[in-house]
């Protein structure tokens, strides 16, 4: 009974660890941005200000949260973004729930506006999507010019090692 429990715990742990390591190796860490953060998608928010300093990478997501009875989410081209022309959207992301998810799966600048006149009040956002930065080449690394791009792995990898160290006995128990 004791042996059975030990092995179950160990193999569950091993599975979790394997997934974590595979996840890290794939270099994928998609971010879901709530547009406008706690303000959401609404009037009287400067979305240029919101997007400033953020990095949007291929595979990230935008999440628009708004009043479904008033606003909507339209992807338009640059010209129509600048002029707030809602009549020729590239893509209508409005689902009707007031909760719309947009996958950023192309490296380009995306332009979103709300129709129904709200664009004129500033309800528009341009998001420049970049390729993912290359994964860190080797482990003890220096962060070049303070770039935060490897921040995730710098935190997560030591954490994984700490967990492995913590449960090392279980691993020995699992393999022997
Ligand atoms: C929004 O912020 C940007 C960048 O700080 C600024 O250039 C722009 O004038 C602001 N727009 C409005 C409508 O206040
Ligand atoms: C955007 O689409 C309009 C037609 O709706 C077109 O006249 C305009 O040239 C396009 N602008 C760009 C930058 O593609
Ligand atoms: C966008 O799609 C929604 C849901 O299908 C629809 O109700 C709405 O009329 C569309 N808006 C535009 C501008 O095409
Ligand atoms: C990106 O996602 C959109 C919407 O899901 C889809 O229509 C389009 O084909 C995708 N493009 C690529 C390059 O995957």
Automatic annotation (TrEMBL):
Domain named Phytocyanin: residues: 31-131
Keyword vocabulary terms for this entry: Disulfide bond, Glycoprotein, Membrane, Signal, Transmembrane, Transmembrane helix
GO CC field: plasma membrane
Presence of the UniProt keyword Transport in the record: no
Ranges in a coiled coil: none
Residue ranges crossing the lipid bilayer per the database entry: 155-175
One Gene Ontology molecular-function label: electron transfer activity
Keyword Lipid metabolism among UniProt keywords: no
Pfam families on file: Cu_bind_like (PF02298)
Family: Belongs to the early nodulin-like (ENODL) family.
Its job: May act as a carbohydrate transporter.
Protein name: Lamin-like protein
Species: Nelumbo nucifera (Sacred lotus)
């Amino acid at each position: 009974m004791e042996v059975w429990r030990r092995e179950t715990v160990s193999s569950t742990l091993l599975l979790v660890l394997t997934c974590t390591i595979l996840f890290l190796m794939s270099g994928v860490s998609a971010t879901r941005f709530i547009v406008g953060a706690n303000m959401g998608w609404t009037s009287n928010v400067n979305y240029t200000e919101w997007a400033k300093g953020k990095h949007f990478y291929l595979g990230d997501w935008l999440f628009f949260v708004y009043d479904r009875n008033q606003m909507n989410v339209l992807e338009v081209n640059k010209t129509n973004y600048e002029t707030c022309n809602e009549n020729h959207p590239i893509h209508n992301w409005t689902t009707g729930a007031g909760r719309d998810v947009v996958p950023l799966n192309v490296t380009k600048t995306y332009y979103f506006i709300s129709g129904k006149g709200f664009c004129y009040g500033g309800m528009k956002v341009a998001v420049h999507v970049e390729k993912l930065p290359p994964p860190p080449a080797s482990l003890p690394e220096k962060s070049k010019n303070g770039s935060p791009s490897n921040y995730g792995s710098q935190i997560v990898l030591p954490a994984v090692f700490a967990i492995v160290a913590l449960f090392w006995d279980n691993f020995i128990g699992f393999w022997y």
